[in-house]
Design goal:
Length: about 110
């Protein structure tokens, strides 16, 4: 939540759709609902990559709204194969998208799930 323009953030297991932790959000931004919906976005993209036969992994996904950025950063747990993502919602008028992506990469490096 220290990322400039942050509205909310969630850590999500995208195999089950379970939200593991949430900060921020509010009455107009239910982070649990948003995280569950974005689980479907990730599943669709992973499925599409498979159908295309691409071996590339997904680093992040950006969804741009009129007033917000939604940034989804995939995390792969190498120990047991579980798949998680960080979901960050940002106010477009206050956020620096490049810096936010950089900060999410740093958070990923420090995160032990």
């Amino acid at each position: 939540m220290t990322i400039e323009g942050a509205i909310g953030v969630a850590l999500v297991d995208y195999t089950s759709g379970l939200t593991l932790g949430v900060l921020g959000g509010g009455p107009t931004m239910d982070m649990n609902i948003a995280a569950a919906g974005n689980t479907d976005v990730i599943r669709a993209k992973v499925r599409t990559l498979g159908m295309l036969g691409l071996q590339d992994g997904i680093e992040d996904i950006l969804i741009t709204l009129d007033s917000q950025y939604h940034l989804i950063r995939l995390l792969q747990n190498k120990r047991n194969g579980e798949s998680f993502f960080l979901y960050l919602s940002l106010r477009k008028d206050r956020a620096n998208l490049g810096l936010a992506r950089h900060q999410l990469r740093r958070i990923e490096a420090e995160l032990d799930v």
